[in-house]
Structure formats: structure tokens, C-alpha cells
Amino acid sequence: MAALDLLGRRWALRILWELGEGPVGARNLRERCDGMSSSVLYQRLRELLAAGLVHHRGDDDRYELTPVGRSLGAAIAPLEQWAGTWAASGH
């Protein structure tokens, strides 16, 4: 699956964003992502796991970013910076 295809799927970036703060259990992750159904959450987690961006910690049943997933933060930091500038301009 191409990176933009995966990251463009609904909720994918939000899940990665939430995991950027550290390991999170599925229930807590769903609560942080207002309005996401559990079926979509688990589908996105399966896709992110298959892509090597997320790891499931079986010992405490939480999800966390892999080193590759963490490196994505540096790749999208310019987009986050642009979004802040755009929002501040009144859009």
C-alpha cells in the first residue's frame, strides 16, 4: 500500500498523532478519537501494523509507534507548521 494511500485514510493520521504521546490501549485510543467506530479503529490499526508504523504490545495490550512510525513525525512536521500558519490567517 502506498504511503499516501494509507495516511490519507480516515483517522489514520489521528491515530498516529495520538500514539506520538506514548503507548495507548485501544479503548483509550478510541476515546481520544471522538466519533471513531471501533470497527474503523481496529481496521486502521491492522493497516498501520501491517505497514510497520505501529506495534502492539501484548504484555499490556497497548499500541505504540515503531521507530519508523516515530520518524513519520519529522516528515509531517512541516505540514503541521503550515497548518498552524494557515489557521492563524483566519481560515
UniProtKB/TrEMBL annotation:
* Any one Gene Ontology molecular-function term assigned to this protein's record: DNA binding
Checking CDD domains in the record gives: HTH_ARSR
Pfam hit, one: HxlR
The record ties this protein, via InterPro entries, to:
ArsR-like_HTH, HTH_HxlR, WH-like_DNA-bd_sf, WH_DNA-bd_sf
Q: Does the keyword Transcription apply?
A: yes
Q: Which residues form the HTH hxlR-type domain?
A: 1-91
Keywords on record: DNA-binding, Transcription, Transcription regulation
The record's SUPFAM superfamilies line, in alphabetical order, gives: Winged helix' DNA-binding domain (SSF46785)
Q: Which residues form the signal peptide?
A: none
Q: What is this protein called?
A: HxlR family transcriptional regulator
